[in-house]
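Quick one, tokens below. Sequence please?
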């Protein structure tokens, strides 16, 4: 389906590269000889915030500690009083949901 939509868009609007300039796309000189686009700075800040948030989540929450315990030693999760098989199968419902929405990806 994606190939069909992509070809239709290419046929209607053309296949040329179009650049859209915005105030964020212009580079700013941070120090002499170093130019940084604001978009790159925003991407770095977002990456640092996401990494810090994930680190805090995995190190300070009950669920995060259980996930780390399961990844390091599957038997250690029993210390938390949780079912090992339940945590191992936790991501499967979301994967099944995505799989059911994309029948053209199935072999």
């Amino acid at each position: 389906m994606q190939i069909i939509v992509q070809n239709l868009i290419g046929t209607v609007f053309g296949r040329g590269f179009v650049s859209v300039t915005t105030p964020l796309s212009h580079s700013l000189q941070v120090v002499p000889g170093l130019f940084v686009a604001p978009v790159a700075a925003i991407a770095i800040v977002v990456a640092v915030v996401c990494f810090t948030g994930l680190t805090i989540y995995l190190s300070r929450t009950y669920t995060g500690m259980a996930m780390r315990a399961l990844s390091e030693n599957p038997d250690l999760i029993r210390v938390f009083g949780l079912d090992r098989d339940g945590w191992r199968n936790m991501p499967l419902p979301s994967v099944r949901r995505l799989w059911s929405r994309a029948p053209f990806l199935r072999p």
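The chain has a mean pLDDT of 76. The chain has five helices and two strands.
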